Automatic annotation (TrEMBL):
GO molecular-function terms, A-Z: acyltransferase activity
Keyword Transferase part of the UniProt annotation: yes
Family matches, as Pfam families: MBOAT
Ranges of biased composition (kind: Basic and acidic residues): 462-479
Keyword Transmembrane assigned: yes
Name of the molecule in the record: Membrane bound O-acyltransferase domain containing 2a
Main location: endoplasmic reticulum
Protein topology in the membrane: Multi-pass membrane protein
Start and end residues of each stretch annotated as Disordered: 461-491
Gene Ontology BP, a term: lipid modification
Length: 491
């Protein structure tokens, strides 16, 4: 695989021997080297390392790195010249459209299925930042506070950022490759050195803490802990991913000779071996930002600083999730928050389906992505129906709840593995072959659950509760008017 990638790569092949040794695509090797360079750029030799490794990395992408500036420049022009009322919509279309165009070019023009010159990875992070900023500017300059949710009010931007501020936010070296994305207001507070001030006034118990007012909290312990997590994740991934390839689950000999329950177990183990790759990249990116002083998020109850403002995952919560929603809430957290802010909270029709569709478009143009996220819509609806209709019966005692948690954990892990398999297989043929070997069993089960156990969406429930409250207020108001009229007649 590494050799094939080199043949289609248009950039530097300096690290080709390392790519062959660890059996990773060449562009991924460059990405990991550059992430480690960002770490050393903070702690060790800032100037020399920055110039040298960044030059080599741009050689690895060659002319494709210009797309970062083109995408940012087009979007900023839309922000400046389009009217404030529709600026966020136009910016969203231009930014996402340019990303999709680049993804189509990379996949179908250069090399299908390879990771050669994967310049769209950084563009995905930039797309999140640009679209988030556009909506936040729209909220801050066109809406009153009463029209915004508490979250939208916090993230709203009250003035148009300058070009320097805009490019610094989009293309800063800490998050240009692996992210994670962050809000403009949080990044601005970090750059201006005010990110600690609001959190210095109180500790978690609500009492003034002079120690933390006098000194900035140190990220050292959290950075060391996250680097240890990175080392363990990388070791696990390199040890297991060759032994448990997902592609074996559609191998004819494996399917014909393996009982179905063992196929389920194998799929879970294969996905379990694949996840540490993401744990490594996201945790390392988080550690880089923390080492630079970005990511402070207040204090714990014991007074220790929290450095999880832009953390992208919670590993234990992922591995022990007892519902589809809990798994998604703790996986790629910043992307989930971006989808919520720009789509779920603003889409008037079926926000769940719209959010999954946007996620598929943002990830890329491989058919497997769309099969995964379309399946995810049914999984989410079925899981919501089960939680609302069945879970209350198991909350009568701790033992019942423990049984429910064990069962739902097993189902969640199987459902996630089943849903994500096309995301790994990428192409239509292998993805559909996988689902055929499982007889589309979870698709049919989800459909059955949704039909038998219907559940109202959260937005509809909130609207009905608001309508009931308004009716109650109207009833009280009418009763008051009647009483006043009777008193007036008596008088």
């Amino acid at each position: 695989m590494a050799t094939q990638t080199t043949a289609s790569c248009t950039g530097s092949t300096l690290l080709q021997p390392l790519s062959e040794i660890i059996n990773l695509p060449l562009d991924q090797v460059w990405r990991e080297v550059d992430i480690w360079q960002s770490w050393f750029n903070i702690l060790l030799v800032r100037a020399v390392t920055n110039i040298g490794i960044y030059y080599l990395w741009y050689l690895s992408l060659y002319r494709y790195s210009l797309h970062f500036l083109v995408q940012s420049g087009l979007s900023y022009s839309v922000m400046v010249f389009a009217g404030l009322e529709n600026m966020h919509k136009y910016c969203f279309i231009v930014t996402l459209g340019y990303l999709i165009l680049c993804q189509i070019t990379r996949v179908y023009v250069f090399d299908y299925g390879m990771y050669s010159a994967d310049f769209t990875g950084p563009m995905m992070v930039i797309t999140q930042k640009i679209t988030s900023m556009a909506f936040e500017i729209h909220d801050g300059l066109t809406k009153r506070e009463g029209q915004l949710t508490p979250g939208q009010k916090y993230f709203a931007i009250s003035r148009m950022p300058s070009l320097l501020e805009y490019l610094s936010y989009n293309c800063n070296f800490m998050g240009i490759l692996a992210g994670p994305t962050c809000s403009y207001n949080d990044y601005k507070a970090f750059i201006e050195g005010t990110c600690y001030q609001p959190r210095h006034q109180e500790n978690a118990n609500g009492k003034e803490n002079g120690k933390y007012k006098q000194t900035e909290p140190s990220p050292k312990n959290d950075v060391v802990s996250k680097l240890c997590t990175c080392a363990i994740s990388l070791a696990v991934y390199l040890s297991l991913y060759k032994l448990l390839p997902v592609e074996r689950s559609i191998d004819d000999d494996f399917v014909s000779s393996t009982p179905f329950h063992l196929q389920v177990v194998y799929l879970y183990l294969a996905m379990l071996a694949l996840r540490p790759k993401y744990y490594f990249v996201w945790t390392l990116a988080d550690a880089i930002n923390n080492a630079a002083g970005f990511g402070f998020n207040g204090y714990n109850k014991d007074g220790s600083p929290r450095w999880d403002l832009i953390s992208n995952l919670r590993i234990l919560d992922i591995e022990f999730a007892t519902s589809f929603k809990l798994f998604l809430d703790n996986w790629n957290i910043q992307t989930a928050l971006w989808l919520k802010r720009v789509c779920y909270e603003r889409c008037p029709i079926n926000p769940t389906a719209a959010t999954f569709l946007l996620s598929a478009m943002w990830h890329g143009v491989y058919p497997g992505y769309y099969l995964t996220f379309l399946t995810g819509i049914g999984m989410t609806m079925a899981a919501r129906a089960v939680r609302h209709n069945i879970r209350p019966y198991f909350l009568v005692s701790d033992s019942y709840k423990g049984i429910y948690d064990v069962i739902t954990w097993a189902w969640t892990q199987v459902a996630i593995s089943y849903t994500v398999a096309p995301f790994v297989l990428l192409a239509v043929g292998p993805s559909l072959k996988f689902y055929r070997t499982w007889y589309f069993v979870l698709h049919l089960l989800c459909l059955l659950v949704v039909l038998v156990l219907p559940v109202k969406s959260k937005r509809r429930q909130a609207k009905e509760q608001q309508d009931d409250l308004q009716k109650d207020n109207q009833t009280d108001h009418n009763s008051t008017d009647n009483n006043c009229n009777q008193k007036e007649k008596t008088t």
